[in-house]
Specification:
This protein is of the alpha/beta class and about 300 residues long. It folds into 2 domains: about 140 residues, Rossmann fold, CATH 3.40.50; about 100 residues, no CATH class. Helix content is about 55%, strand content about 10%. The protein has 11 helices and 7 strands.
Amino acid sequence: MDKIRQAGELEELDLSRVCFGVIDPNKHMRTLLKEVVRSLGGKVVCEAENVPDAVQSCYNNRPDIVLSELVMDGGGGFEFTRAIRSEPDLSKASMPIILVTAATEQRHILTARDVGVNEFVAKPVSIKQLYKCISHVITKPRPFVMSANFRGPCRRRHRVEGEEITLRRARDWHDACAAACEQSKAARDEVRELAGKLGGGKVEAQLQRANEAVKAASAAVDAAAPLYKVEEVMVQAEIAQAARDTAVQALETVRAAYEAVKKKSAPPPPKPEPTPEPAPDPGAMSQAQVASLLGAKA
């Protein structure tokens, strides 16, 4: 690895603060990947052998990058990626995922792109190729797209000349902008509903905050509508996504206030009825009789 770096083939990265998750049904392969990660200077914070455990482990440990096999129990790498990308929390949904697998048919590579995988590494694992993919994830991150039909890193890796390609990429960002606006409205509506239950005044500031976020997101959608240059639409989508995050934060604050009031006003649990004493058994012996009997047998 040092020879590759010294040869200038790859940019040297400090991975000492980068945390990895390793997902593979094969224990020996997990061990190999963990050793590779450590040799590159990174650290492994979680591992799993199937999809349900992988999803939960990644949510609990929050690795910076996940290395996942495609073929495993509980659905496989595609299902794992879909589960992560569908998470409402953007910080979890945007977790970078690198598939490390021997299933390298074209259909698998295209599906990986469409479900939101960041990079694809073929087995047997080349340290150089894995390091290159890690480097791309860190130094050249692609914008995270949230649209009605797709959640994941932008599928267009390179800028390609041509009006058709440009428009298709711009539409991705238009979709992301519109989706963020709809998510802002949904959060605002729930804030409004909870505010009504709380009496309004207690969370008036959060309701106003959510309303302003919806206005900002709607304005971004309107501003993006006549645009076709990717960079210009991307700016408006990022504005809408920031507004969406503000509305969600307001909703979380109101939810917490609502739960606190609900908990405080809930009636205390009923006291359990006292258990009646069992009726004495006529044939039962007293402790003294038991001791006497045991002593007599002894």
